[in-house]
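[09:14] KT: can someone run the structure on this one? pasting the chain below
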Amino acid sequence: MHRLFYESVDLDRDAVLRKRDDWQQVLLAEESLRILICHAGDPLFAFPEDMDAHELVVLGAPAVPHLDVDLHGGEWIYLGRDANGPVIAVDIAVVVKDREDAVRKLGGGFGDMRTRMACLSIDEAGLAAQARAIFHWHRGHRFCGACGHPNAVAEAGYRLQCTNPKCGKPHFPRTDPAVIMLIHHQDHVLLARSPQFLPGMVSVLAGFVEPGETLEQAVAREVHEEVGVKIKRAQYVASQPWPFPGSLMLGFVAEAETTELTPDDDEIEFAMWVHRDEVANLPAKGINLPRPISIARYLLENWCAGRI
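[09:31] RB: done, structure tokens below
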């Protein structure tokens, strides 16, 4: 089974350097440093959004003083170090609020990350997704949830520290666990359509984990709530970071004990059982499968091939 999209591999998160106050100076002195420019979490591409070409803009430290944007005034985070060297992400939304103005100053385009990211390599997408998730967390936690005072960014972006001396509560990045599950019965797979999906698309079921329940319990609950099917014990397959905005998709496969479908009208437009041999033919019938970069497609392809 191949690597999943958005999956960072061989990335040293470099926790020791992150805790140093001078981490920016240390990294800016390295010749192999790469810098991703972002705006509200979305990375900068070399070409406008309306072009077919999709190339991530990666800068070296020598280019920083020559830009028409003050990167030093932006929000900096250290993503880590891979085989090609260290990688920093800088979000310039705090210094250039208007995205179109940022594009005029820098060229290229930011665009919608959901559509543009699919054209990147898995390694590039993994770094950009990591940056997007952390920047999103920063934007949603500018104030301490315990006392309401402003938070300050610490540890190269991986800790937010309450600035109230009487509180001083540290805050750490949040990841929302969500289960996604392929349910099968006698060579048939359960596919359903949610109102939030792209036009014509069906997929496997998914839902967020609730406090106090195991992942297996979440799988069983979500399947029963959404389509009324009871399942046997779920088995874990793989996971995928999903930066929309900051989830971790935990993939499972499970066999159905019951097959009658009673979709929840609020969550599911329709659900159906599809034979293993017919899944690949659905697009010819006007029914789209999940995007190739998703763990939903990963589960479907590997189940149809008999690997899970």
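[09:33] KT: thanks! The helical segments are 15-18, 23-28, 99-106, 113-116, 122-140, 215-227, 295-304.
[09:34] RB: yep, looked fine to me
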